[in-house]
Amino acid sequence: MAHSTTTKYYTYEEDAPGTEIGNLSQDLKIEPGEDLQTSFRFMQKTNYSVIHMRQMDGLLTVGESIDREELCPQSPKCIITFDVVAFSKEKFQLIHVEIEVRDINDNSPQFPFNETYLEISENLPVGTRFPLHPAIDRDVGSNYIQSYQISYNNRFGIEVSTGEDGLKNAELVLLKKLDRELEDFYTIEVTAMDGGRPPKTGSMAVHIKVLDFNDNSPTFEHSSLKVELNEDAPLGFLLLKVHAFDPDDGINGEVVYGFVEESSNEVKHLFHIDPFSGSVTLNAIVDYETKRSYELNIQAYDLGMNSVPSTCKVIVEIVDVNDNAPEISIKPMTSMSDGVAYITEAAAEDSFVALISTSDRDSGPNGYVRSSLHGHEHFKLQQAYGDTFMIVTTTALDREKIPEYNLTVVAEDLGSPPFKTIKQYTIRVSDENDNPPLFSKPVYEVSVMENNVPGSYIATVVARDPDMGDNSKVTYKLIDGEVNGGAPLSTYVSLDPISGSLYSVRSFDYESVKQIEVKIQASDNGSPQLSSTALIEIKIVDQNDNAPYITHPVLQNDSTDVPIPYNAPPGYIALRVKARDADEGINGELSFQILEDEQMLFSINKESGEMVLKYGLSFLHGDVLKVKIGVSDKGRSPQAASATVRFLVTEMEPEDQIIMVVEASTEARSKIDASLIVIIMLGGGCALLLVAIVAVALSCKHNRGERSCGGKKKKTQGLFERSSLSLHKSKDSSMYSGPRVLVNDRIASSHDDSMSLYGDRAREAETKAFHPFSMKHFEPVALWQGDKYSLQLSGIRNNDQLSVKDSGKGDSDFNDSDSDISGDGCKKSHSTFNPRTNSSFHSANTLGADQQGGYCIIPTRSPASPCSNAYTIAFTQVPAHSHPNANSGSWRGSAYSTNISKARAQLQTFPRTGTLPLGFGQHKHETGTCPEEPHQSGQEPAALAEVATTF
After folding, report:
1. What is the CATH number of the domain that holds 231?
2. pTM, to two decimals
3. 846: phi > 0 → left, psi -120 to 50 → alpha, else beta; which?
């Protein structure tokens, strides 16, 4: 429960700082509260520097030296008042403290001027008084001026009187009649003395000049008067009319009135006197609460020469009327700004909020005040002392329900009519951090198009905290996570900690990541800090950003060669085109079409990609059928790819096969998901047919002038001439411009699960097979590596190997400078060739064959490439079919492929039977090691076929 009391102390001005004034806990017998450091506390900061209080026990001491004259000027009593709250075991007590500052004699009397001048007529009567400027002493009581003294003279004396305001006034009194002819000038020193011990004094010199004027002065009917004036009197109100009589005649008897020269400016401002009638009127509004009485010194003088004025003292007393409304002063328990006080929502019932003080400057019933509080039942007024009240709480507060209270304090006096003062008082409930920030929902779903610009805006999440201030300031952060179980979440998105806006860090790829889950934590800035989380599911929306690409047949420079039987009937499936698109949905749905077909021989299924002959082939169609095919997706802004397919009309039978195995480097295998290059098979029966074709071509070489070499010969010659190829020996023995024969494999078209010769991606090698005209003399084949060609010539047995090795620097094109060709299968002498010019190969010597009848072409070995990652080629006695413009993609397709398990097999040599040995492909190389070169004496020589690989 709250209590209040009043206690009084005194101290002297100029007491040293630290001088003890009183002890509240001892004098009022108050037991300290639980917190000894804050048992006593000032209600407000007024006079903190003058009076100090020890919070532990309420010891009051002088804070700094007190100058009473500065603190309470012209006041008989100087009292310092303040309020102290004592937190005792009984809760708390309000103490009103009054400290009287007593005066010491620390100021000397002072005159406003060091000297003054008087002019006195010689005929003035004895007893004439001459008012002097009063001395000023800032001290009060007995330390104030008590007497005046003058230097010795036989003409003048001094008299001291006390005015209504308590001031001591001095007047010179004429003691003896003056005689200007005897003495016309007097200098008198007037001394003012106070009542201190020892007394202090101040002096002023008075210079008196004696004039010779008329000898009668005006005389007032009354030397002093007293009048009353209501403070609400209007301007121009007549207070009184004074009259003075002068027995002289003429101008010496004409009297004029005025305020004495020494009158204060305040008197001259408030009052006016008519110089001829002597009427005193109100010149400005007076206020009882400002000053309650005024002293008017009116003088009258005639218009004659050497006129001597006379004076009359008029005392004007101001009468109070009820013209002031009560004043309300509010002192909050806590700091207050802009009329707003604060209280924590954790405050208990009956907690002290503010101190209300009322006052009325009027007197009597006009100054009695009644107070009341309106606005909310959670607060009430409780009297502390006199006209001072406390605002206390009546219940516990909750800021989230009522954050602010607008109270009205009403103070009304008892005057007639009464005056009422109304003051608004706002109390804001300060916040406690009792609410965490909350998201509008636990899971958010947003969609973002792939290929977005890094740094682009995704979404904004907002968490609300019903608290206020720092307790409601929400900051956001990403909770660490991973995308696809690997990359940190922070490498995909970033979050603005202030706004909660989510931005992309990278460009999203739907084909890599389809959805990102982002967990966000919202935390307030309170103590203790509270937080909550929400989940954002970012769904990546697919765009048509990937063009389709043809996977079968394998392309090189957007073209490929595909053999087709010369006797293919209508409806023959010449090729199954396959393509892929990394996009999904409609963006990944593909459609095939024929873009160019000069002879209009083919049609294509838009969905399956099957190319079918519409008409049977004849020699009129030529040896090369060029068709441009295209594939496009069905997405918005469709993307497309195209390729040129050259169908090479051939007489080979599908079941005849020659086998070629190419093993890629470890690096290449890792990129194309295949361990070895696929084996190519060509049938033995086809080899016999090719030998016949080459024989016809050889015969035509010697008869260039003849247009016909027989039915079979003409057909074969036409095939090669239309291909712009020749098996004739060049005039330059180092040049070869003959046809390049494709070594390929054909199996049933139903083998859709087989892998093509070069996998899903084009290889670097371009492979050609040649049928020599003799075992000892034929055209050389050049192998290109960077800016040189290397050719290894040797005779090998059937079990010898030819290895061709990639550099291992990734997928290589057939003319890449990083292709490195080496082999340890046949360590023979080799020749180096100049760069290829105009699609021909320049050779330094002629390729020859050994007695075994077989050939091995091995490029120059590169030390950077282990021979185990070499390309290995096997061959039989069956001549290969002519294949111009062959490339690695020529063996791609279901009709020209082999199973991937066989592609990983170790190359073996084959006998001249024209059939494949059983168990082919069962032996595998280990990466980085060289297989031993098998040599079996007595084994049958290899076939007279040559297979060359160009890089």
Report:
1. 2.60.40.60
2. 0.35
3. beta
